[in-house]
Amino acid sequence: MADFINWSKRNDIPVGPGRGSGAGSLVAYALGITDLDPIRYDLLFERFLNPERVSMPDFDIDFCMDRRDEVIDYVGQKYGRDKVSQIITYGTMAAKAAVRDCGRVLGHPYGFVDGVAKLIPNTLGITLDDALGLSEAARKNSELASAELISRYQTEDDVRDLIDLARSLEDLTRNAGKHAGGVVIAPTPLTDFSPLFAEHVAKGESSRSVVTQFDKDDVEAVGLVKFDFLGLRTLTIIDWALKAINARRQRAGIEPVDILALPLDDPDTYALLSKGQTTAVFQFESRGMKEYIRKLQPSTFEDLIALAALYRPGPLGAGMVDDFIDRRHSRAEVSYPHPLLEPILKPTYGVIVYQEQVMQIAQVLAGYSLGGADLLRRAMGKKKPEEMAKERVKFEAGAAERSIEAANASAIFDLMEKFADYGFNKSHSAAYALVAYQTAWLKAHYPAEFMAATMSSDMDNTDKVVTFLDEAREIGLAVLPPDVNSSGYMFEALDAKTVRYGLGAVKGVGRGACESIVEARRAGGEFRDLLDFCQRVDSTKLNRRVLEALVHAGALDALGPNRPSLLLQLPEVIKATEQLARERAAGQVSLFGGAADAPAIHIELPVAPDWPLETKLLGERETLGHYLSGHPLDPWRAELQGLVGVSLADLDHLWSSKKDRRGEAAVVLAGIVTAVRRRGDTMAFVRIEDGRGQLEVAFFREAFAESGHLLSRDRILLVEGNLAEDQFSGGFVLRARQCWDFRALCSQHARRLALTVDLRAHGAWDKLQSTLAAYRPGATPMRLDLLTPGKARGTVDVNGPLGVRTDPELISQLRALPGVSQVSLALHRPWQQGGG
Q1: N or C: which end of the chain has fewer CB within 10 A?
Q2: What is the pLDDT confidence band of residue 600, given thresholds at 50, 70 and 90?
Q3: Is the separation of the CB atoms in 550 and 504 below 8 Å?
Q4: 154-168 confidence digits (pLDDT tens)
Q5: In 3D, which of 142, 90, 429, 431 has the Cα closest to residue 260?
Q6: How many Å apart are CA 244 and CA 237, to the nearest integer?
Q7: Is 35 in contact with 419 (CB distance < 8 Å)?
Q8: Which of 86, 65, 78, 80 lies closest to 1 in space, CA to CA?
Q9: CA–CA separation, 12 vs 373, rounded Å?
Q10: Residue 589 confidence (pLDDT)
């Protein structure tokens, strides 16, 4: 293991500092397998390898996601291809899958089979016997049985035949796969230990597709050691960020950053963590974790280890996290079950957080060896009464030898038993807390390089890129748009405060095209115009679809007057480029020289008027997944602010300040619809965003019936409902009661339209009246604040037959008029009584 890990480090393949119980091994630390000193953090070797319970050691190792396969190839080459293999996994036929497969083979219509399968409750691990109420589990838990399925099984022959056949096949192996990370290394050829299985080999693949026919448990049972070669994206992010940082430091003549030598007491890092600015920080980026880390205000590495261990469903549900934080800040008393336990529990303020602490308590109070204490910990986890009774007797006897009263010993044993359920492996928590600290340090000291690496790692996940872009702007970074004259494939930090968008994040533009663009730019300098660009970039990597995507994303803005002009020029430019390519192929060009001798092609490049902002933004959304030049809500910010008073960036504050006893806050929010998922005719889930945040809105039966016709993409909605935490995403969800279309609101609920007009501008009054005439008569009164040629100011109220219809188009037209410097529309709030 030390061999292939150190080979990886020598070959610049990022390796994690350790994970799982292996981080408790001092030998592993000494050999460079792990990077965390187990003695300094009280990590126990017996948690990894117990001499009193002989079993094979299990090392899990994290590698860079992109280069993990290189390590597996090295191991095969070093130890023999016939001795190294990945491990098989078996997929079995679960209840619903068995019904669907049998129905297909029997030739039943899809609708019939689908209807029967959907009668099986959506419970993890449910069997057909459970759903039919025939199992012991169903007799104990009535929710497992499906009354409708039982009824149809008893009354319909087709259903009974289908279910009976499915029951006979249920849980049989259906298909074989490959374990995500498991690798075995045998001392002699693998066939001495296990049969092998050849996967379906795709063209170009080799013997790497051969896996053991024994699964991971059977492989260990026959005496082979399993290694987990796991891919961790965060290691790739750290590596990319470090390369960019050290390149900048080298240019400045500064020593490179050594990520393994970072001081673990850096004040700036803990300040960033304490503010909850942990988006993109490993392990600490969920909304719930941000809340707890702000409460904790960590100042030591031990605090991070503890929080990483505590932030799980069990400790959260038991209130352990709040108890830990209250003790940390002296709001609750720090007490110990026995004075001997203070050295063990002091780092966690008297709270039993780790499995290792359970083991140490047994060692100190009852004289257990650490191996025996590990067996006790396992017994507590399994909760077998007879086993626990034996251990209690042993524990109390050992405590009595140390003059600890039986009652006190029994109470401590009960406490250990309770916390054994919640205790977490400190070795794993410490190793992952180190990775978390490293990412937080990078974000605190080199935010541009860190955020560029983070965005590059998820370029194919638009939602994540948008989240990271918002975070980059939140922490004061400027994100420049994609540009073929300066962008690379990935996002790139230009300086300490600026990130350039990567061409690889433009949808429809592959890596090959991006690399060809960069290569051509490096060889010949910046591109002058669209024709120059198409002539110099490898034409096999550029097609019309790629070029159109680059135009809409704004990546070609420097090559033409505007985006519609570039699209207009495309056919002529492509035609000229193809003609030049044909001439080169025919030898008509460069008879005595190279490609540089090619004659310059001159064509007239047409120019078109620029698009309105809305059209530009739609193109950016289609190619980048979000808006870059602005936001569709920008023209209406003032009106929306006047109506709802908050943005979607304020959800945390809004929820915490207004939530009721049920944990819900009554709110009215606004945003533009970016996605709609309908569930039949009774509900829909809509995503809205406002350029500062996004939110999922759930429309259930009544709200859906009333507002379902309004739920379409690109519509600006105002939604009134209850804001609550979303347990699945860690964010928020709004359960809608009512909603309104903003466009309709402008027309139906306008109170007054106010304009500031400078009459000194040429034709200002005539153009204003001409524009208003198309929207008269209407019910909305106007207030005109006029500045006359004589520099006098006056205000005129206009109503009655001179009132206007306040469509959003009118507002847009008025804002574009010469001399009109301010347009504001006051609106009634229809959700308030009396409409005021």
Answers
A1: C
A2: low
A3: no
A4: 999 999 999 999 999
A5: 431
A6: 11
A7: no
A8: 78
A9: 40
A10: 52
Q: Is 684 helix (H, G, I), strand (E, B) or coil?
A: strand
Q: What are 18's two structure tokens?
A: 């350790």
Looking at this protein, which amino acid is placed at residue 367? G
Helices and strands in the chain: count of H runs, count of E runs:
35, 18
The percent of residues in the chain predicted with pLDDT above 70, rounded, is: 95
- pLDDT tens-digit series, residues 113-152: 999 998 998 888 888 998 988 888 888 887 788 889 999 9
List C-alpha distances in Å: 594 to 535, 584, 590. Answer: 15, 10, 5
**Contact (CB, 8 A) for 391 and 379:** yes
Instruction: Give the per-residue pLDDT at 383.
Output: 75
Residues counted in the chain = 836
What DSSP letter does each residue of 79-131 carry, written as one string? H-TTTEEEEEEEEE--HHHHHHHHHHHHT--HHHHHHHHTTS---TT--HHHH
- pLDDT digits over 374-432, tens only? 888 888 877 777 788 888 889 989 999 888 888 888 999 888 888 877 888 899 999 99
Q: Give Cα separations from 414 to 47, 375, 387 (angstroms).
A: 21, 16, 14
Which of these ranges, 152-161, 171-180, 477-486, has the smallest mean pLDDT?
A: 171-180
Return the number of other C-beta atoms located less than 10 Å from residue 755's C-beta.
22
Please tell me what DSSP assigns to residue 141: -
Handedness of CA 617, 620, 621, 627 (dihedral sign): negative
- Helix%, strand%, coil% for the chain, nearest 5: 50, 15, 35
- d(C-alpha 270, C-alpha 294), whole Å: 11
Report CA 164 to chain centroid distance, whole Å.
42
Q: Name the one residue in this structure whose structure tokens are 């990077």.
A: 35
- pLDDT tens figures, 725-739: 886 666 789 999 999
Quote the CA–CA distance of 322 and 303 in Å, as a whole number: 13
Q: 147: exposed, middle or buried (C-beta count within 10 Å: 0-12, 13-18, 19+)?
A: exposed
Q: Would you put residue 739 in left (φ > 0), alpha (ψ -120 to 50) or beta? A: beta
Contact between residue 45 and residue 25 where contact means Cβ atoms under 8 Å apart: yes
Residues 6 or more apart whose CB falls under 8 angstroms from that of 350 comprise 327, 334, 335, 336
In this prediction, residue 591 has a pLDDT band, given cuts at 50, 70 and 90, of very low
Q: What is the Cβ-side half-sphere exposure of residue 448, based on CA atoms within 13 angstroms?
A: 18
Tokens at 708, concatenated = 């379902």
Q: Residue 375: its pLDDT value, please?
A: 84
Phi/psi of residue 151, nearest 5 degrees? -60, -45
Sign of CA dihedral 136, 139, 145, 147: positive
End-to-end C-alpha distance for the chain, whole angstroms: 72
Number of Cβ within 10 Å of residue 809's Cβ equals 13
pLDDT of residue 530: 92
Q: What type of residue sits at position 398?
A: G
Other Cβ atoms closer than 10 A to 777: 10
Asked if residue 243 has pLDDT above 80, the reply is yes
Distance CA 286, CA 436 (A): 13
pLDDT for 207 equals: 47
Instruction: Find the farthest-apart pair of alpha carbons in the chain and give their distance in angstroms, rounded.
Output: 103
The average pLDDT across 190-213 equals 74
Which residues lie closer than 8 Å to 342 by C-beta, 6 or more apart?
336
Cis peptide bond upstream of 189, omega within 30: no
Helix axis angle for 233-251 and 447-457, nearest 10°, is: 140
pTM of the model: 0.82
Q: Are the CB atoms for 696 and 728 separated by under 8 Å? A: no
Residue 243 CB partners (closer than 8 Å, separation 6+): none
pLDDT at residue 710 greater than cutoff 80: yes
Q: What is the pLDDT of residue 581?
A: 76
Q: Quick check: 708 and 636 in contact, CB under 8 A?
A: no
Alpha-carbon distance of 36 to 26, in angstroms, equals 9
3-state SS class at 168: helix
